[in-house]
Amino acid sequence: MATLNKIAWRNVRRNKRRTFLSALVIAVGLAIYILMNSVMTGMNRANIDNLIDLSTASIKISTEKYHEEKEALPLKYGITNADMLISFIKDQSDVIGVTPRTQFLGQLSNWEDIMPVMGQVINVDTDMTVFGFDKYIIGEFLSNEQDNEIVLGKDLAEEMGVEAGDYITLYALTKFDSRNADEFYITGLLGTTDPNINLNTALISYQTANDFLDLENLVTEVDVAVERRVNFDRFTNDVNDLATTLQQSYPELHIETFEEMAQAFLGITEQKQVFGSIIMLIILAIAAVGIFNSVLMSVYERIREIGVLRAQGFERKEIVKLFLWEGLIIGFFGSIMGVTLGCGVNLYLVIVGFPLDKFAGFQSSGIPYWGVLYGEWNIGAIVFAFCFGLVVALAASYLPSRMASRMEVTKALRFV
Question: pLDDT digit string (tens) for 44-100?
Fold first, then answer.
């Protein structure tokens, strides 16, 4: 065995150009697989980040009564001592933001058309610590300096024929079920990646809502933002640990994590991952063909050498072992190069990201990814890629060397 190892190592070193090209084919195939896996995982993560950033937050807290009737958005089941709850949450580890919200149903009128709207009463000072609307605002956000300011979804504003700087009338039921209407100044529009927000949402401040809805600072939900982790499993563990702590401290409240609120959405994401896995298999199949072709050609170029070894007394199984050792060495160096190349480029994608907005027309393509698309580390995929390179290189060496070792010595020596 030691003799075969020395011969295999000597052959690999003697044919440096062929060894490098075979290893390079393996490296390029594995690097592409690692990068594609990172980008596709990153796209799934971007969808979940958008969901948390715009709609669910990491954790949403309400009363049990409000949760049971949440479709009607009632203004009679507020959280008592919301300020104490918010102070308690702020003291927990991994919490980066917490804000109160109150939702209500209303109607918008431009004196020609009337459209239903889902209103959100927000705390102007803390809302952006949880939700990322500031990244999508067209115009100005709400201020605490003036009453009767409103922010509308961009598509909703287009339906109503208004824009930032115009006035519009809002109708809604107050906390005491009396109907109220008033004129609001549109400070800005929301053009997010969520079409539901763009078409149905109107934001007003607690300062305005306390008068318009007789709200008396009623808070129907408290939203919590947990620090984002590069590793998604670690992030979900942080969220679940915090939810457990909150539930134990406030058993009378309903605590929901983003996973519980968006089960249907996450189910669709899992289906997309299956489709992504098929694409990954296709990429691996193409890489395998390249690796097979490269290693197979190097074996066929040496059939005469196999004939010489057989003439010197080498047995067939020793020749197969010799080429397996060479395949293993080439596969090892190719896999190391592929993992290094793939991880090196992926490090850039994870830290800097891929700026989608530099590509003309991307934002109008209908694809729900804006700004920068970041890659994701997938240790399992990297380990799999390394093992895949070794296995394919071994298989590519075994089959042709086994066939060549069975050739008659005279025929192998005359092989051209």
Answer: 788 888 889 998 999 999 999 999 888 888 888 889 889 999 999 999 999 999 999
pLDDT in tens, 120-134: 999 999 999 999 888
Number of other CB atoms surrounding residue 233 within 10 Å:
8
Contact 20, 277 (CB under 8 A): no
DSSP string across 229-242: -SSHHHHHHHHHHH
C-alpha closest to that of 334 among 36, 37, 25, 32: 25
SS3 410: helix
DSSP class of residue 374 equals P
Q: For residue 308, what pLDDT is reported?
A: 79
In angstroms, the Cα distances linking 327 to 5, 289, 297, 406 are 12, 15, 12, 19
Q: State the DSSP H helix or E strand holding residue 98, giving kind and residue range, or none if neither.
A: strand 95-109
Question: DSSP labels for 212-273?
Answer: HS--TT--SEEEEEEPP-SSHHHHHHHHHHHHHHHHHH-TTEEEEEHHHHTHHHHHHHHHHH
Amino acid at 276: G
User: Rounded to whole angstroms, how far apart are CA atoms 287 and 293?
Assistant: 10
CA atoms within 13 A on the CB side of 163: 2
Residue 201 near residue 156 (C-beta atoms within 8 A): yes
Q: How far apart are CA 101 and CA 120, in angstroms?
A: 7
Separation between Cα atoms, residue 38 and residue 321, nearest integer Å: 36
Q: Strand pairing partners for 222?
A: 61, 100
Q: In this structure, what token pair is assigned to residue 301?
A: 């170029």
With 0-12 CB in 10 A as exposed, 13-18 as middle and 19+ as buried, what is 287?
A: buried
HSE toward the beta carbon, residue 401, CA cutoff 13 A = 27
| Side-chain-side CA neighbours of residue 267 (13 Å) | 5
Q: State both tokens at 85.
A: 């709850």
> Any idea how long the chain is?
416
Phi, psi of 114 (to 5 degrees): -125, 130
